[in-house]
Design a protein that fits this description.
The protein is α/β, with parallel strands linked by helices and 255 residues long. It contains 12 helices and 8 strands. The two termini are 15 Å apart. Bound molecules: 1,3-dihydroxyacetonephosphate (13P). 1,3-dihydroxyacetonephosphate binds next to strand 8. The site of 1,3-dihydroxyacetonephosphate (13P) has 14 residues, from strand 8.
């Protein structure tokens, strides 16, 4: 396998944080710190911040991201946001299937798949999240859980569409807990994902796929995680809310 062609991607997932005023300030702090990044840099912000964030990023190397989208084009889905609405605001990336959505909002592998298809059909790129819980890891089910999630999410997705997809491996037990997967644990699961994608598509698709690690990634542990052969970036929660911490992670991501 040749991974020299994969440009790493570091994305901040702000979750339900940052008012518009706070978003503008944070982006103004981040912009100069990451301007020479060797990787792609995206910020996935709350829906209400999208317009402000897009304006604050203008002329920079930052890409605008959202945290979810609905599977229908439009209609009676109170409280939901369509992929076309995001595309109109200049969104490049949308996070789909985050474990917090699976855990608290009834997201299933089927709805993840449907949301991905809607996002792709509107020209958005997808950051697909997968990951096992602590109980699943401790009972040896990690490979099975990850394989099932990946397979279901990619059902009906073409090889051409795979170019628009990033997969984020986020062990649920490592999210917001301060417990990071070891570089070896994270690398193993990311390798498993790449192998699966090779089986589902072909070697070229697997080689080109970018796989992020997410879960308590920070300025201190980023370099070791990102040095893993199959880890091509990070999806960053808490540490993406502080400009110097986020910038340090970006600096650690080299091709
Ligand atoms: P933390 O970096 O806060 O653990 O969050 C990770 C995450 O869920 C990113 O999507």
């Amino acid at each position: 396998m040749d991974f020299s062609n994969r440009t790493p991607i570091v994305a901040g997932n702000w979750k339900m944080n940052m008012t518009r005023a706070e978003a503008k300030k944070l982006i103004e702090e981040i912009r100069p710190l990451v301007k020479d990044a060797a990787c792609e840099v995206a910020l996935c912000v709350p829906f209400t911040d999208l317009e402000t964030a897009g304006a604050a990023m203008e002329g920079s190397n930052l890409k605008l991201g959202a945290q979810n989208c609905h599977w229908a084009a439009s209609g009676a889905f109170t409280g939901e946001i369509s992929a076309a609405m995001l595309a109109e605001l200049g969104v490049s990336y949308v996070v789909i299937g985050h474990s917090e959505r699976r855990q608290y909002f009834g997201e299933t592998d089927q709805t993840v798949n449907a949301r991905m298809k809607a996002a792709l059909s509107c020209g958005l790129r997808v950051i697909l999240c997968v990951g096992e819980t602590l109980a699943q890891r401790e009972s040896g089910q990690t490979p099975l859980v990850i394989c099932n999630q990946v397979k279901a999410a990619l059902d009906g997705i073409t090889a051409a569409q795979m170019k628009e997809i990033v997969i984020a491996y986020e062990p649920v037990w490592a999210i917001g807990t301060g417990k990071t997967a070891t570089a070896q644990q994270a690398g193993e699961v990311c390798a498993l994902i790449r192998g699966m994608v090779q089986g589902l598509y072909n070697e070229a698709v697997a080689d080109a796929l970018r796989i992020q690690y997410g879960g308590s990634m920070n300025a201190k542990n980023a370099a070791e995680l990102l040095a893993q052969y199959d880890i091509d970036g990070g999806l960053i929660g808490g540490a993406s809310l502080k400009a110097p911490d986020f910038a340090a992670i970006v600096a650690a991501a080299k091709q």
